[in-house]
User: What shape does this take?
Amino acid sequence: MNPSTTTPPLTGPGGPSSTSLWRHRDFRRYLTGQTAGVAGSSISSMAIPVLAVLELDATPGQVAWLAFWGQLPPALLALHAGALADRHSKRRQMITGDLVSATALATVPVAAALDVLTLAQLMVVAAVQGAAGVVHDAAAISLLPTLVDRSLIQRSNSRIGSLFAIAATGGSNLGAALTALLGPARALLGDVGSYLLSAWCTSRIQARETTPTRTGRRRLRTEIAEGLRYVRDDHRLSVLTWVNATTSLALAALNTLWALYLLVPA
Assistant: This one.
């Protein structure tokens, strides 16, 4: 990337609060890519359980294992991914995560077309996507403050949250339509396309990233421990962490059970 073409964090002549976020190209590219990823993930969330239960005759235990392998990498790698995002290029990590996820997911419709798809492959794909996704998401969260002024972070997160909610709902509806029209395996190509769009949008971001100056090379474990202590000592952050963890656990259980409840004959 040519440094002369980079753009500074968004501010306005009358102060940051006077600037429209929608006029900032880097923020629009960031938001477009992330929203596409959310919509695509909703397509997979709709299509994969249908594929496992109806096409591969998955049992309740096998559906539970499929969900487990998808949730295990985020549980194990979230802290490491956050520390890595602070050390290395965030855009590169986001693009890599998108391309790895797209490649892994694309093997599913290919295997289904060749009639060699198995539940074991779905579990491997779920694990790879989970690992790539947590690396991408940690970098995406860390990248936003380099795109907009600090005073605009709250407004930016508000826009992101609103569009993510719309994208998740729209993606679920689109996933249902694609599953009905094309079948669950080929419906996953919609998610593959969303990963590629996300990677392309991220590659178009021109704002210069800032990396903290380090006097020495510290161990990754040390940085993770410092982050945990910071969250523990801040009451608001610790409460938010526990709330998010509890909500994620409940949603994981729900996503495991709904497909069995809706798809398996009584």
Remarks:
- Confidence is low (pLDDT under 50) at residues 1-8, 11-18.
- The longest helix spans residues 25-55.
- The two ends are 58 Å apart (CA to CA).
- Residues 238 and 263 are 38 Å apart (CA to CA).
